[in-house]
Design brief:
By secondary structure, the protein is α+β, with helices and mostly antiparallel strands. The chain has one domain. It is built from six helices and five strands; from the N terminus they run ααβααββββαα. It is globular and about 45 Å long.
Length: about 150
């Protein structure tokens, strides 16, 4: 519901396809041995009730649930941090047991994969800066819980 509400904001002709593609990411959490994942988000994403209070409540509950998984870390950059290294947009650094790290940058109409080692290194540095600005996982969960309680 959250993905549908978020993606429908741009009124695409292929909303069902976009939602289905976005939901394939959920398979990462459902494996017997899920990948290790570390998420950092801006507190403003917790404040925007995408899809309404009930949809946002489900989304925040899911974040808290995944944050309890020992293979996942969720951190929030609080709104008291005025500027941070993630303001240019969402990105993901993918690390593998074999081969070099890869950068995935989300864009307006599509994402792109970057293999250039300098670009991947710059993204890794930005990620380190984000981790330094973010609350600890425990304090992040408390903040998510505060926003959850504020939904009526």
């Amino acid at each position: 519901d959250y993905a549908r509400a978020m993606l429908s904001a741009v009124r695409p002709d292929n909303l069902d396809d976009l939602v289905a593609a976005r939901m394939t990411r959920q398979a990462l959490f459902e494996r017997d041995m899920p990948a290790r994942m570390w998420f950092i988000m801006d507190e403003n994403t917790l404040r925007r009730p995408i899809g309404g209070a009930s949809v946002m409540r489900e989304q925040l509950e899911r974040l808290l649930e995944h944050g309890q998984d020992p293979r996942s870390v969720i951190q929030v950059v609080p709104s008291t941090v005025a500027a941070h290294a993630g303001l240019a947009g969402p990105f993901t650094v993918l690390s593998f047991t074999e081969g070099p790290d890869v950068l995935y940058v989300d864009g307006f109409s599509q994402g792109r994969i970057a293999l250039d080692s300098n670009e991947v290194a710059a993204a890794s540095h930005a990620y380190d800066l984000l981790r330094a600005d973010a609350l600890s996982p425990g304090k992040s969960a408390d903040l998510i819980g505060t926003h959850l309680k504020g939904l009526t």
